[in-house]
Amino acid sequence: MNRQTVFCPECRQDVIYVVKEKRESAELKGDLYEFMAQIAYCEQCGQEVFVPELEDVNLKELYDTYRQKNDIISLEKIQSLPEKYNIGKRPLSLLLGWGEQTFSRYYDGDMPTKQYSEILKLIHADPAYYLSLLEKGKENLKSEKAYEKSKVITERLLDYSAAESQSKIEVVADYLLSKCGDITPLSLQKALYYAQGFCYAFYEKFLFNEDCEAWVHGPVYPKIYRQYRDYCFDSIESEDGVDASVLSGEEQLLLDSIINHVCCYSGKTLEAFTHTEKPWILARAGLPLDAPSNRLITKESIGEFFASVKEKYHMLSPVNIKAYTRDLFAQI
Length: 332
Hints:
Layout: E1 5-8, E2 13-28, E3 31-42, E4 48-49, H1 52-69, H2 75-85, H3 89-95, H4 102-107, H5 114-125, H6 127-137, H7 144-165, H8 168-179, H9 185-203, E5 212-215, E6 218-220, H10 222-228, H11 249-261, H12 267-274, H13 278-283, E7 296-297, H14 299-312, H15 321-331
Antiparallel strand pairs: 1-2, 2-3, 3-4, 5-6, 5-7
Helix pairs in contact: 2-5, 5-6, 6-7, 9-11, 9-12, 9-14, 11-15
């Protein structure tokens, strides 16, 4: 409730008014649109009173309704573009090959055409698209400095987007591939599984969020399987220039130990290891050995099992994983 005052023609004096929502309709560009308007009423007589600020609010609500119904970019997204790409309104308009004031008018609330709206939506959603426009249209800019400033911030956005688009499990897989000279899709899957389990055992947290499935040949993370399945039984090409900044020091220490004490075994040997372990066995309970399945190996079962392994082998750090895998190898 707003306790400000306004002149009431009925009461002939300044009065306190209250604001209530009311469904209204108005015509815009030849069509009728319904929207929720903010209406002020005199607290004394109950008559509607005129508040200039509310007229602006209601006009914006009408325009927003029009934008939504006609799939026109929102005013907020338009107004975010100069800051997002570190470019002035006039230079941005020139970059797009528009009139000098065209973007400024849209920034101030004018409605863009459908064609221009689609261009602005693409620019807002895709820094790579904007960068291509910047390169193609830089001659339209009156200042080399404007081009350079916008290019720097856009390239930063693209670098950030690339890092954000890669999930943690993909970073872990890339890290393993970057340091293993000979790792097949089968052995990569088992390395991810052991990394997940021992991460929980040593640090009481899981390394990544993805769920593991109990396939015929052992634990599998389907997202990574699909990414590298075309290699079949061949070694996966190693990754160069992996950005490991999302991995903590302790996580990298763990992965280095996985590389040294797990990835030293073949994929078929690691498959045999997992077939002796409780998480895979429980997940496939009642299934024939060769039956396809996407049953989950729950994170809880993985965490509990590897915590018990750590305790049984009196492991003090990830380096001690060697004793467990060497023991498994002696048993198969």
